[in-house]
Write a structure and sequence with these properties.
Layout lengths: L6 H25 L1 H9 L2 H21 L1 H4 L1 H22 L2 E8 L3 E7 L2 E9 L2 E9 L10 E6 L2 E11 L3 E20 L4 E6 L3 E3 L4 E4 L9 E7 L2 E6 L3 E5 L5 E4 L2 E4 L4 E5 L2 E17 L12 E8 L2 E7 L10 E5 L2 E8 L2 E17 L6 E12 L4 E7 L5 E3 L2 E8 L5 E8 L3 H20 L4 H26 L2 H7 L5 H8 L3 H8 L2 E3 L5 E3 H13 L9 H10 L3 H10 L3 H6 L4 H11 L2 H6 L1
Parallel strand pairs: 10-11
Antiparallel strand pairs: 1-2, 1-27, 2-22, 3-4, 3-21, 5-6, 6-18, 7-8, 7-17, 9-10, 11-12, 12-15, 13-14, 13-16, 16-17, 18-19, 20-21, 22-23, 23-24, 25-26, 26-27, 28-29
């Protein structure tokens, strides 16, 4: 106990905490936020680590009774406990997500920023549910097994494979089948899809099918194969763009020719036939070590009930709810969803207008903002508000930040943070500051004791220094004080101080290409040449003006010799290159040769 809960161990844990946070920052930069959470922030060992540190503080507060003997020290240590309490609340109660709103619409829901596995199993009247956040990464083992009981049966879900991104790739194989490679956009960035004969894919607003029977619930972009090539049947007008010569056209509703490298557009959707693979199989390919924005992760699961099992794949996107995978195994109906969780808020946000400003002459966004109305019926609030960078909406422990926007500039994406732990954390910071200041000025504190000892040493050191100065010869003292004749000093002081200040405002470029005022350059030059910031009660700009616009360069040389500056130059030989460059442009060759 003496060593495990010692203050030395507390200091070691505090420095270790700083090192771990630093390591997590590098991991987050190279492998993504999800990996940093999986390895450190959300790991159970990190909870144990912080719990151990808190236990050390509590043990020492009780052991030394600092709340009685040293209130300042107690307040300092107690502040860490308050901060830890805030962190605990944030970890288990707080959450983050995004809210998407279109102009004229209102929303009272948000989606979580973390992906959640949701399982619902039902057999007759009996049911069982399970929910857990997922933090998979390429740096962890990604092992996951969960079982839940439904009546007398057990449902087992096991993770088989995880990829941070997954791209289907057609690989030529004699055992394969014909695949059409298409690039399809539904209003966002286009993605590659493969479709085989007899397949149908659902894209929300329409179906894409290859030699299938069309349905009537939504339009079908139906691809048909004939002896001469391919045809497409679509019930509406199609606009076309030839990718080779950039010519555009329009096709009537019904059946038309389906050509390679021809873009077919309807509404916000676009389809291009990129390639035809006669015999190929699809394999998942991923070269990424972390998740990528706008791309789905890949998770392969094995679901078992008794001896019956089924393998499914989920493709969750960040900030989007996943699709429900349904199955029947051994008399049990199972629903599995992986993706963001829908969270309801106790109030609504209505988007009145979204504004986007661009830099003049470019399409680059300069700033964007959202004019919203906060509607809280419980508190009878109907308040207009403008959300933009560094101007957040804070209401009932929810904070709304401007995050992104829709490509058509008719919708906004707000980042939402719900963190009840913010208040205790800030209180802990305030107590920490008070405890530190109190410890500095407490009469019985260690700092005051050290200060008294330092004052005694300072008095002794001052006496020794005085003896040393008296021992110096007059010649040495004269050498330490620069001397200059009255004529040169009068010349240097003749430059008007207002004129010197205006001279100091001129923007110049230094030898490293950085722009800075001449005042800064003058301070650098005089300080590095003379070793002082002020000399003879002259401003550095006045001295630099004297060096540049004096009667002659020889006068400058004489001034430097009279002021005993030559030894200073010899001691600062490593700093002279800048002034050689300056003298070459401002002072002429004589001053340059002197330096």
């Amino acid at each position: 106990m003496k060593y495990i809960f010692s203050m030395k161990m507390a200091v070691f844990m505090l420095f270790s905490f700083g090192a771990l946070v630093g390591i997590a920052t590098f991991i987050e930069n190279d492998y993504g936020t999800q990996t940093a959470r999986a390895l450190i922030y959300k790991a159970q060992w990190f909870e144990v680590f912080l719990g151990y540190f808190v236990a050390i503080l509590i043990y020492n507060i009780i052991k030394y009774k600092s709340y009685k003997t040293k209130p300042a020290v107690f307040l300092f240590h107690f502040s860490f406990l308050v901060i830890a309490l805030g962190a605990l609340v944030t970890r288990y109660i707080g959450y983050e997500g995004i809210m998407h709103i279109r102009e004229g619409d209102s929303s009272h829901t948000m989606v979580s920023d973390v992906k959640i596995l949701q399982i619902n199993a039902k057999e007759g009247e009996k049911s069982s549910t399970f929910e857990q956040e997922l933090y998979f990464s390429t740096m962890t083992g990604n092992s996951f097994t969960q079982s839940l009981s439904v009546g007398d049966k057990e449902v087992k879900v096991e993770l088989l494979k995880y990829l941070p991104t997954a791209h289907e790739k057609a690989i030529a194989s004699p055992d394969g089948k014909k695949l059409l490679e298409l690039k399809i956009s539904t209003g966002q960035k286009g993605e590659i899809y493969y479709i085989a004969k007899g397949e149908r894919k659902d894209f929300g607003g329409f179906y894409l099918g290859y030699d299938i029977e069309p349905t009537t619930d939504k339009p079908t972009f139906l691809i048909k194969e004939d002896g001469a090539g391919y045809k497409v049947h679509f019930p509406f007008i199609l606009k076309t763009l030839n990718m080779n010569d950039k010519t555009s056209g329009e096709l009537n509703a019904g059946e038309n020719e389906f050509k390679n490298r021809m873009l077919y557009r309807f509404g916000p959707n676009a389809i291009v036939l990129k390639d035809i693979h006669e015999k190929a199989i699809l394999k998942l390919d991923s070269q990424d070590i972390k998740t990528q924005s706008g791309q789905a992760e890949y998770m392969q699961w094995k679901v078992s009930v008794g001896e019956k099992s089924q393998i499914i794949a989920t493709r969750p996107y960040k900030g989007k709810m996943g699709k429900i995978k349904q199955m029947e195994l051994n008399g049990v109906h199972i629903d599995i969803r992986v993706g963001a969780k829908l969270i309801e808020l106790p109030f609504s946000i209505k988007l009145e207008d979204f504004e986007l400003e661009r830099y003049p002459g470019s399409m680059t966004p300069a700033s964007y903002s959202s004019d919203v109305v906060l509607i809280d019926k419980e508190q009878d609030i109907n308040m207009p508000y403008k959300i933009y960078m560094n101007h957040i909406l804070d209401h009932r422990n929810y904070r709304f930040f401007q995050s992104s926007y829709d490509q058509d500039e008719k919708g906004t994406v707000l980042s939402v943070n719900h963190d009840p732990g913010t208040v205790p954390t800030y209180i802990g910071y305030i107590l920490l500051t008070i405890g530190m200041i109190w410890s500095l000025f407490a009469p019985s504190g260690r700092f005051q004791k050290l200060l008294k000892g330092a004052r005694k040493l300072q008095t002794s050191a001052a006496a020794v220094a005085m003896v040393a100065l008296l021992a110096l010869s007059p010649q040495s003292l004269n050498a330490a004080s620069p001397a200059i004749d009255e004529g040169m000093l009068k010349t240097m002081k003749s430059y008007d101080s207002a004129h010197a200040r205006n001279f100091g405002k001129i923007a110049v470029q230094d030898h490293q290409g950085r722009m800075k005022p001449m005042d800064t350059v003058a301070h650098d030059v005089i300080a590095k040449i003379t070793g002082r910031s002020v000399l003879f009660d002259l401003e550095p700009t006045q001295m630099l003006l004297g060096m540049v616009y004096g009667n002659s360069v020889q006068a400058v040389v004489k001034f430097m010799k009279d002021a005993k500056i030559l030894p200073c130059l010899q001691r600062r030989a490593s700093m002279i290159s800048f002034h050689v460059l300056l003298s070459r442009h401002l002072c002429g060759s004589s001053f340059q040769n002197f330096v």
